[in-house]
Write a structure and sequence with these properties.
The structure is a single chain. With 321 residues, this protein is of the alpha/beta class. The chain has a single domain (14-320), classed as Alpha/Beta hydrolase fold, catalytic domain (Rossmann fold). 37% of the residues lie in helices and 20% in strands. The protein has an 8-stranded mixed sheet, with helices on both faces. It is globular, with a radius of gyration of 18 Å. The termini are far apart.
Length: 321
């Protein structure tokens, strides 16, 4: 029988472990978090994550723009690392479609911009459970299509767009590419940067046993609640745009998958990488030993996070830069 990994967090990178403990202590200061209304949970989550967004690269220019979509206007933040016309990464934050924002992920976006030399376009898509599938996805697609005619105003070469995100944002990234492909626009996106994405509603019992404890960043109970928040009904779980591992993946662009070893979603990320390769998409996947879900946000203290951001950015530069 294969030896089971430790279940007490000792397999985590020390800096990542410190990140998890600090964030956990922040959430513990709000003992009513799980029972609070969604709006209050978001307020508290922003406060807990705020210290991790500080510092990092300065941008040459940043805009905050309201972009019209079929579901109302969406706040978009455009980071330009330098003057001139650049390719762009459309970045979609994580948070289970329920919490977090372009503010909680601002440093991650600036890190990608500075390291890749690409503009980064963060999308503050509508959150669940108030706005369910497919509303956030359709907003993302609308922002991508808006960049075609409007990107030039912000120094963006809309012929060279990548899409990426973490967790729920990784899910939305693949789903947006599927939507554009099926709408006859397969070349709208040239690359996918997928960071520990949620690609199916099912986590294996082994994954939950190994990495679903409080010492790690994401539990299986939390992930199940996020899926429940996002879907309209049980039938949505059978929709490939909600669960991309159910999709036909032919015709998707090259992909880079950042996979955290100590994450309940690691198995489905490995499966997504295999499926993409089988479907003909050039795919690079890297498993970061000792990394947890959300570990990129620990870049201010973690050399492992710095390495992952650097490697994803270098791939992005090679692919669309």
């Amino acid at each position: 029988m294969a030896k089971r990994l430790p279940r007490n967090g000792l397999d985590l990178d020390p800096d990542v472990r410190q990140f998890i403990r600090t964030v956990g202590a922040g959430f513990a200061s709000y003992p009513d978090f799980q029972d609070a209304p969604a709006a209050r949970q978001r307020q508290w989550a922003e406060e807990v994550r705020a210290p991790w967004t500080r510092g990092g690269p300065a941008m040459q220019k940043t805009w905050n723009v309201d972009v019209p979509t079929r579901h109302g206007s969406v706040r978009v933040r455009i980071h330009k690392p330098s003057a001139g016309v650049e390719p762009a990464l459309v970045y979609l934050h994580g948070g289970g479609w329920t919490i977090f924002s372009i503010d909680t992920h601002d440093r991650v976006m600036r890190e990608y911009a500075a390291r890749s030399g690409c503009a980064v376009v963060g999308v503050d898509y509508a959150l669940s459970p108030e706005r369910k599938f497919p509303t956030p996805l359709e907003q993302v697609v609308d922002v991508i299509e808006w960049l075609g005619p409007q990107g030039g105003e912000f120094g963006i070469d809309a012929r060279k767009l990548a899409i990426g995100g973490d967790s729920a944002g990784g899910n939305l990234s693949v789903a947006a590419c599927l939507s554009l492909r099926d709408a006859g626009k397969p070349r709208a996106i040239s690359a996918m940067l997928l960071n520990y994405g949620a690609f199916t509603t099912e986590c294996s019992a082994d994954a939950c046993e190994r990495y679903g404890g409080p010492e790690y960043m994401l539990t299986c109970a939390e992930m199940a609640q996020y899926w429940l928040n996002y879907r309209r009904s049980e039938a949505d779980a059978n929709d490939p745009l909600m669960c991309p591992l159910l999709a036909r993946l032919e015709g998707l662009p090259p992909a880079f998958l950042t996979i955290a070893e100590c994450d309940i979603l690691a198995e489905q990320n490995l499966e997504m990488a295999q499926r993409l390769r089988k479907a003909g998409a050039p795919t690079t996947s890297v498993v970061y030993s000792g990394a947890s879900h959300s570990f990129l946000e620990a870049v201010s203290i973690s050399s492992l996070s710095t390495r992952a951001l650097a490697e994803g950015s270098a791939w992005l530069s090679r692919t669309i830069g």
